[in-house]
Design brief:
Blueprint: H1 8-38, H2 41-45, E1 77-83, E2 86-93, E3 96-101, E4 107-108, H3 112-119, E5 127-133, E6 147-152, E7 159-163, E8 169-173, H4 175-188, H5 194-198, H6 201-209
Antiparallel strand pairs: 1-2, 2-3, 3-4, 5-6, 6-7, 7-8
Helix pairs in contact: 1-4
């Protein structure tokens, strides 16, 4: 078996490659930090705002008594809220969350049309397409459960993520946020688990946007 000679040439080569690796990481760290500083923080963090087109709820005397709705009596929680401009009861049960129309008590299922209507409250841009997601993708990774992705035909290529269970608009994403998220991954430099640092990217961006 041939023995490895620890010659000065070998040490120089090791030193060269270590220097290149460390230099490349420093370059990526500096580049990503500079790029994030150039981005508009309002465009990055502003996509997590709540629905901007709220509709007033009708007076209670025009709504059905929730006690008359089958299944509501076994509920552990009940909320009267707006869904795409209509009042609904959001009922929490042992089997999960159920929605009922507050006018007639009929059960509501969040289909593509209703998800589009809910997402349209966030922007007046035309809708490009709708995609059903059985589980969150990277852009909606801080949420859980099935959802709808509604893509808009606007300058920011915005996408709204609507819960398929509650119909709530979970989050809005645009190209500025996507650019921030990419450079945040490079800046964090956690190569063993890149998503670990990216999970905090939105919170950091939003904190900076309100300063």
């Amino acid at each position: 078996m041939k023995r490895l000679r620890l010659s000065p040439l070998l040490f120089r080569r090791i030193h060269k490659w270590i220097g290149l690796i460390l230099g490349l990481q420093f370059f990526l760290w500096a580049l990503s930090g500079s790029m994030m500083a150039l981005l508009d923080m309002k465009q990055v963090g502003g996509h997590d705002a709540a629905e901007i087109h709220a509709h007033p709820l009708p007076t209670p005397d025009r709504l059905i008594d929730p006690a008359r709705i089958p299944g509501v009596r076994q509920a552990s929680g009940l909320v009267l809220r707006d869904l795409a401009g209509s009042p609904v009861y959001e009922v929490r049960t042992e089997d999960g969350i159920r929605l009922f129309g507050a006018h007639d008590g009929h059960p509501i299922r969040i289909d593509a049309a209703l998800a589009k209507a809910a997402a349209s409250q966030m922007t007046e841009a035309p809708i490009r397409d709708v995609v059903a997601l059985p589980k969150p993708n990277l852009e909606a990774r801080e949420h859980s459960g099935p959802m709808w992705r509604i893509n808009f035909a606007d300058a920011a290529n915005s996408s709204a993520y609507v819960s398929a269970e509650t119909g709530r608009v979970l989050v809005m994403r645009g190209d500025t946020w996507r650019t921030w998220d990419f450079f945040w991954m490079l800046h964090n430099m956690d190569w063993t688990n890149p998503l670990r640092g990216r999970e905090q990217a939105t919170d950091v961006a939003f904190d900076r946007s309100v300063i």
